[in-house]
Amino acid sequence: MNNKPLILVVEDDPAVRNLISTTLEAHDYKHHAAPTGEAAILEAASHNPDVILLDLGLPDTDGVQVIQKIRSWSNTPIIVISARSEDTDKIEALDAGADDYLTKPFSVEELLARLRVTFRRLHGGSGGSQDGAVFENGELKIDYAAGCVYLGGEEIHLTPIEYKLLCLLAKNVGKVLTHSYITREVWGSAWENDVASLRVFMATLRKKIEKDPSAPQYIQTHVGVGYRMLRV
């Protein structure tokens, strides 16, 4: 039990907090809970959790500000769980440093799946091709063994989902991958038609690797079909 991951649950709604806590307990995850942004920052600083589950609508501060404060000193994965479902809200949270975004209402199975994706990334399950291999395409470089991505020689920070998306496209460079194939590979078969989430994460990924996201050099959109990584 001692080597089980510690999860910090930041949620002011007692019903939702209890649902998440009960789910984590049933799957042997250790967890702490915080009902406010201030409590969340104190818990994150004092207990160094492995993952943070964060609601955005907190009573004392906006969750995006909590993300920004935690990101000033920690790279702990943050999964947002919020009723805000607009793409602009999701992109704002991801740009602030969140790693994933789950919209309320959510199923416990979906929450557990998002946690598994995050833990695989933490423990080296990158979704890349061969261990020890390096993928290079123009100024873009992926070191699969280290789990690092470089652009023009400088390392760029990708969230677990962004990294998995990039590795999947790189592994299939030149091929058009359908929306359903990509979402199934990234999130699992239960969410293989979640094109809305895919669109949001592709937008944030492009912001980080494309000089001009409106005229992408690396990732091409095939409208109504999917995406393809171009060989530069």
From TrEMBL:
It comes from the Bacteria. Residues 6-119 form the Response regulatory domain. PROSITE patterns: OMPR_PHOB, RESPONSE_REGULATORY. The keyword Lyase does not apply. Keywords: Cytoplasm, DNA-binding, Phosphoprotein, Transcription, Transcription regulation, Two-component regulatory system. GO terms for molecular function: cis-regulatory region sequence-specific DNA binding; identical protein binding; phosphorelay response regulator activity. The modification 4-aspartylphosphate is found at D55. Residues 132-231 bind DNA. InterPro entries: CheY-like_superfamily (IPR011006), OmpR/PhoB-type_DNA-bd (IPR001867), Sig_transdc_resp-reg_receiver (IPR001789), WalR-like (IPR039420), WH-like_DNA-bd_sf (IPR036388). Gene3D superfamilies: 3.40.50.2300, Winged helix-like DNA-binding domain superfamily/Winged helix DNA-binding domain. It holds the Pfam family Response_reg. One of its GO terms (biological process) is positive regulation of DNA-templated transcription. One of its GO terms (cellular component) is cytosol. Residues 132-231 form the OmpR/PhoB-type domain. It is found in: Cytoplasm. May play the central regulatory role in sporulation. It may be an element of the effector pathway responsible for the activation of sporulation genes in response to nutritional stress. Spo0A may act in concert with spo0H (a sigma factor) to control the expression of some genes that are critical to the sporulation process. This is Stage 0 sporulation protein A homolog. It comes from Bittarella massiliensis.
